Amino acid sequence: MTDQLDTPPTDAMAPLALTMGEPAGVGGETALMAWKRRDTGVPCFFSIDSPERLRALSEETGLGVPIAPISSPEEAAGQFDYALPILEQPLAAPVSPGSPNPANASSVCASIERAVGFVNDGKASAVVTNPIQKACLYDAGFEHPGHTEYLAALAKIDTPPVMMLLCPRLRVVPVTIHVSLEEALRTLSAEMIETTTEITARALKSDFAINNPRLAIAGLNPHAGEDGSMGREEIDIIAPAIERMRANGITAFGPLPPDTMFTPRARTTYDAAICMYHDQALIPIKALDFDGGVNVTLGLPFVRTSPDHGTALDIAGHGVANPGSLIAALKTAYAMARRRASNI
Question: Strands 272-275 and 126-128: what pairing?
Fold first, then answer.
């Protein structure tokens, strides 16, 4: 799998737009750390954030990253070699690392909205989102289950959002996302499986340059239902969906027993695994590569990636966060945007 860049990019694409995320979390310091590793293939990006906050954070953590306030995304390329470009997003309240303040929720959302606006206007090549603290946003009236659904609303797409998690050894896509396990079991349908798989297949072609993607479809029950003795969802829902997808030209196979489909040998047989619920997908990828996983939203009219971790409030502000997942998200976003642009 080659979803990321291994060498510094040289072509003149628009910079990536990195959102603020939860200002009390580790997003700010991982952005600073990612800039410090720009000689390892990190593409040009700018943060939509508070220059004052990041300047103070750089000093307090001892990272020593110079900050360059910019007034437009077009200025980022000229500053990136010397300082981290910051497009100002004011904060409503002071930030205390580790202690989210709902008063800053509007700034967090505005940073995301502005990033989407920039990529829609061609001023940014992709959106990379820092982690948000959902509970804090909910307290401020946020109406979406998470980033994925919020971005789908901003994009005004008719199809449901599709979340892919990837690392160098695995790509996974959950059919049901940010809902309880009870609701996931109740709402799972053949139509949902087909829609998710079709969107995934198209994205693997356009954004990952896989001409004939192979999709492994997970079962829901232990041993994929054991011929109905442990549940009939495989027989009544999943297998009919696979049959229709194959008839429509998609290389899909299963339903596979979830406890064996993520072994090293099994992973060589497919390009992405379609899973029935959130943890079925996220547990294997986080076990394989917790520090380097990337969250990608498929089916949007623009490229969006994110680190596959949370706000890490317990270590925020100490300068000890691992920037690996953010760096992987930046590299993946750039590679996807470049492939997508070459297909236009």
Answer: unpaired
Helices (H), the chain: 27-36, 51-61, 76-79, 105-120, 134-139, 147-155, 181-187, 190-208, 233, 239-247, 264-267, 278-289, 324-343
The whole-number pLDDT of residue 2 equals 55
Specify which residues 218 forms β-bridges with: 256
Residue 145: per-residue pLDDT:
74
pLDDT reported for residue 285: 94
Contacts of 318 (CB under 8 A, 6+ apart): 61, 97
Which pair of structure tokens corresponds to residue 241?
Answer: 């969906």
Tell which residue, 343, 332, 333, has the closest CA to residue 2: 332
Cβ atoms < 10 Å from Cβ of 214: 15
As a whole number of angstroms, the distance between CA 194 and CA 242 comes to 8
Domain with residues 1-157+306-344, CATH architecture: 3-Layer(aba) Sandwich (3.40)
Is domain 162-299 given the CATH code 3.40.190.150 in the classification? Answer: no
Q: For 169-193, how does the pLDDT look when each residue is reduced to its tens digit (9 = 90+)?
A: 999 999 998 889 999 999 999 999 9
Positions of the chain with pLDDT under 70: 1-11, 344
**Who's near 129: CB < 8 A, 6+ residues apart?**
18, 19, 21, 112, 115, 147, 151, 304, 305, 306
Bridge partners of residue 294, in order along the sequence: 166, 307
The set of residues, in sequence order, having a beta carbon less than 8 Å from that of 2 and lying 6+ positions away, is 335
Listed by start position, the domains of the chain span: 1-157+306-344, 162-299
